[in-house]
């Protein structure tokens, strides 16, 4: 779930910056998406604000923009001033060049559009990951008369990214009504409070936002996740049910919520949720994998293995996992069958060695010696020790000692010494293997 939420946050933060960038371009260059392609490529399609997701549920994952696109040549349009040129360079991803152009601008120039200048400077710094600088620029833009909600939200976001949590909370608290009319302000407030370790204040922000924007899916979803984090599992399920019943729901929505429940130890609730999701999305193998993980956490490896088996028949990577689950369930016949379908030869032979030793087929395990060596697996110390153990069990002590002598890992070295003592105690003068 964490990975999914972080990706949501990355995308929504990018969209927030994209809207502010587009708005800035339109104001500085007059470019709109309806103009010819030469200008349109410098702009950006206007994107609506989406939410700013949060921490363990609202953890920010900034995504710096790579400066790899073609440059914007000022000669293309001699009328473009430096502020407009900086905005275009920023949009094209040339952040260092945009910063250099901004540095050449005289801030004391009476004709300078100061709100625009500071907003562009803030966006460039934000995209470069310089969040304290970005916060300073956005605050200067507001003080210079910028009243746009996006600027206030980006100020709070920059302060949050810079770990200026008290300042970020104060920015949201003092935000004008126009900003508070944006659902993002409540999501951002929840994110800030969560990072301040105040989960209850975070929930209050989401709850207030949900009451004001009851159709905002992101708000409702974050609210349900936070209920899980607060241990209010039944309330969380009730809050999430309308979202999961929605026709727009995806399998990933079920997976993310089930992951939240599973991580909270609510394995039965997670199981029921995923079982229902499989009925709704019968062809979605990821749901089967997630359900298998849930059953494994519940101590039911055989059920988990059976869930993976259909995919394991056509995917060697899944076959490796299914074989391990069958091994844990002590269904060695099926584990060996699944192992035969593994494509990766190193993983296949490593698992085969483990299966043979666990079944006490030590002679068969020792016979893998040359194959393990050919695959380079004798550089893997756990494999080395397992093979030495197999040779020990069939009284091939010389080979066992040779393998044990290569061990460096402290724990395996301790086990090797224990094997050596056993070999010494079982040796008799009449046994040629002891010589």
Question: Can you offer a commentary on this structure?
Answer:
The chain has 435 residues and is mainly α. The chain folds into 2 domains: 1-213, Tetratricopeptide repeat domain (Serine Threonine Protein Phosphatase 5, Tetratricopeptide repeat, Alpha Horseshoe), CATH 1.25.40.10; 344-435. Helices cover 67% and strands 0% of the residues. It contains 25 helices and 1 strand. The chain has helices at residues 2-29, 37-40, 82-91, 95-103, 114-127, 131-143, 149-161, 165-173, 177-180, 183-195, 199-212, 217-229, 233-245, 251-263, 267-280, 285-297, 301-312, 316-328, 332-339, 345-358, 362-366, 369-374, 381-393, 397-404, 410-426; one strand at residues 54-55. Helix 6 packs antiparallel against helix 7 (149-161) and helix 15 (267-280) packs antiparallel against helix 16. The two termini are 59 Å apart.
**What's the tally of helices?**
25
- What is the CA-based Rg, rounded? 30 Å
The pLDDT mean sits at: 82
Series of H and E elements: HHEHHHHHHHHHHHHHHHHHHHHHHH
CATH superfamily of the largest domain: Tetratricopeptide repeat domain
Class inferred from helices and paired strands: mainly alpha
| Unreliable parts | 1-9, 31-80
Strand content: under 5%
- Biggest sheet details: none
Q: Give the N-to-C terminal Cα separation.
A: 59 Å
Number of individual domains: 2
CATH fold annotation of the largest domain: Serine Threonine Protein Phosphatase 5, Tetratricopeptide repeat
Question: Which shape, going by the Cα principal axes?
Answer: elongated
